[in-house]
Amino acid sequence: MSNATSDHDHEHKPYQQHHFDDMQQQTQSTLLGIWLFMAQEILFFGGMFAAYTIYRILYPTAWAMGSATQNIWLGMFNTIVLIGSSLSIVLAVHAARQNQKWQVMKWFTITMLLGLVFFGVKSVEYRAKWDHGLVPGLHWDDAHALHTLQEHAGDVHGGEGAITELPEGIQLYYSLYFVMTGMHALHMIIGFGLAIWIMIKNARGCFNAEYYPHIEYFGLYWHFVDIVWIFLFPLLYLV
Amino acid sequence: MNDSAKTEPKLNYLNAGNTVKSWLFTVDHKRIGVMYLASIVVFFLVGACAAALFRMELATAAPDVFSNDTYNKLFTMHGIIMVFFFLIPAVPGVLGNFLVPIMIGAKDVAFPRLNLASWYIYMLGGSFTLAAVLLGGIDTGWTFYTPYSSVYADSNVILAGTGVFITGFSSILTGLNFIVTVHKMRAPGMRWMRLPLFIWAQYATSIINILGTPVLAITLLLVVFERGFGFGIFDPAKGGDPVLYQHLFWFYSHPAVYIMILPGFGVVSEVLACFSRKRIYGYEFVAFSSLAIAAIGFFVWGHHMFTSSQSEYAALIFSILSFLVGIPTSIKIFNWTATLYKGSIELTAPMIYTLGFIGLFMVGGLTGLFLATMAINVHLHDTYFVVAHFHYVMVGGMMMAWLSGIHFWWPKMFGKMYNEFWAKVGAVVIFFGFNFTFFPQFIAGYMGMPRRYHVYDVAYQPFQMLSTAGAFFMGAGLIICLVTLVASLFRKESCGSNPWKATGLEWTTADSPPHPHNFEAPVVVDVEAYDYTDERIYQDA
């Protein structure tokens, strides 16, 4: 991509794309683009949050019991892990600003390791749902589900064993749980792919202290994914 | 393309490379626009063939050509392909990609590779949907209403839903690209109030694309999960609410009609100004009414659900808001009409399409007000009146505007002028064919004929027969139009850079076809849009 009509006075940096007049224009365009992307992401998750809100209002008992079956401590641990990964990606951006290539590598690696820990815990939780017959459609077992609810939902309905049948809408709670956490996990997997690509570019020395947009924007994306979890954790586990 | 390279030694985007690879890996927004044109025409023809087939069936009240099941699959295929693969991407994908950077004096869109990716995403989504058709088709209607789509219909719903889901990202990326391009890539001197109205329209459309399309994406994904895995978000058996699906679906799909029509408004403003030789009357109002339509359009979705268990107060508010959309829309219509007043009107082929657009769109828009009135809506809901209404808006409005734009910018895109006589014949035949097809449906619908039945009361047969005859008339017009345009590509003589003597950077500064980088020298803008008193546009060809 060389500039065929490079008759302007601007100094051309090697990483300036041919169709931009100067680096400022390129930087501002990319930044606006990434924020618009975030806007559409919010609407994407917004559809699920809308469904969540409506069903929560319709079926408060199912929601209270469903969240009582969640393991709050695992959820809490995962929340801390993700906040930690947010910190490490900020440190990666900071290192990029200081032109410290290998520090960037280090913090990217730590971010991904924390992401893997999150997945490890998440798979334990998914596994437990599967074993208890709490996966709508794929592995749903009324009797087993009732038993699990009776065991955990004591706080919700005046003592253990107080419920004799499944509350209405309980499958909706678990459907939304899987869809919402699943979409969140999908965004993390996409993040892994991006992180590996950026690490390769970084190792090749594509970035320097004044040009590191991929790293910075990956940071924004990763924060976004974390923030989604910050909403999911209280909505699905705590309330 | 090889021949044109010999007769036209000047470098342009078409002769810059002749290999298949140079097209498939291009990041040039103009080539991407041409690739969209070719693929959208293919999808349009598939959708049109489906329509021709079920129109044959509907000519008589008795079932004679297809079974019930095949009929259902045909109208579903027609709807899905026309809405998601023709109407939504038609103007942004083809004309928007080609023109947005040139009109604002930029070398390309802000993210050229993303732009190419959006075409591939469109094709991928299209292949999924066509696969669903080839594997037996689906019969849910284009709206994929649950629980029919998620529990009872056959599993091709998964393929078709995934296809539409994927294609959605192509509109999101195009929208993102246009917003950033318009904000950041304007040439020096191209202030917001100097932008062509086509750009304003694309900008408003892009906002809807970014804020609406992701909601459709997640909604269809939920339907796919429900159909595929048995998750129960919308399944009443599990406590789910099918009406929630309708809310989420129309939250996108009502704004989507503005995604379809707003770019058409942009085309009409350009063509009308050119062939009236006048500045668009009330430029600022036309520009901001696009944004107003985009904004209000997000709050009217409930008028699709007057009869589906929505509370009457909600329905009342949605009804009022729906009437409100009429205001910015009529501002546009009045301003266009005022532009014609005392203009030097020239009835070229694009102008005929545009004038046809104004008339037909007005019928479509006004019948929309009937439907937004709750009491009338209850009578007309799910009748042919609704079918006629949205075809007047979508076909009479959007398709006419698209064809107008294609005819207007064809010489710019390919450097060749088509045979004007046959182009006008095509335009007139399409106009009359369209009215024969859809006007009788207003009457049939008003008399109570429900939509989506292939066997019907014999009392409605005259209307349906007229409709079928009109559809084939319109088909003939489309064929005339297609042949005329394709034939022009084999012409030897070039049309010159500004055959219409139009304003706008694409005509006054760029060649036909344009240079690979659009302009050979950096562009500086010192005039407002539509300055038809400017001597420069009348000088050379």
Task: Please supply descriptive tags for the structure shown above.
A: 239 residues; Four Helix Bundle (Hemerythrin (Met), subunit A); 7 helices; elongated; disordered N terminus; B: 541 residues; mainly alpha; 17 helices
Can you put this structure into words, describing what you see?
The complex is a heterodimer of chains A (239) and B (541). Chain A has 239 residues and is mainly α. Chain A has a single domain (38-238), classed as Cytochrome c oxidase, subunit III, four-helix bundle (Four Helix Bundle (Hemerythrin (Met), subunit A), Up-down Bundle), CATH 1.20.120. Chain A has helices at residues 23-58, 60-68, 72-97, 101-131, 142-152, 170-203, 213-238; strands spanning 134-135, 139-140. Chain A has a two-stranded antiparallel sheet. In chain A, a hairpin with a 3-residue loop joins strand 1 and strand 2. In chain A, helix 1 runs parallel beside helix 7. Chain A is elongated, with a radius of gyration of 23 Å. Chain B has a single domain (2-538), classed as Cytochrome C Oxidase, Chain A (Up-down Bundle), CATH 1.20.210.10. Chain B is built from 17 helices and no strands. Chain B has helices at 2-7, 20-24, 29-58, 68-104, 112-134, 148-152, 156-184, 197-229, 242-276, 283-296, 312-340, 349-372, 374-380, 384-414, 420-446, 461-488, 505-508. Mean pLDDT of chain B is 93; it is low at 1-6. Chains A and B meet through helix 1 and helix 6 of A and helix 7, helix 8 and helix 9 of B.
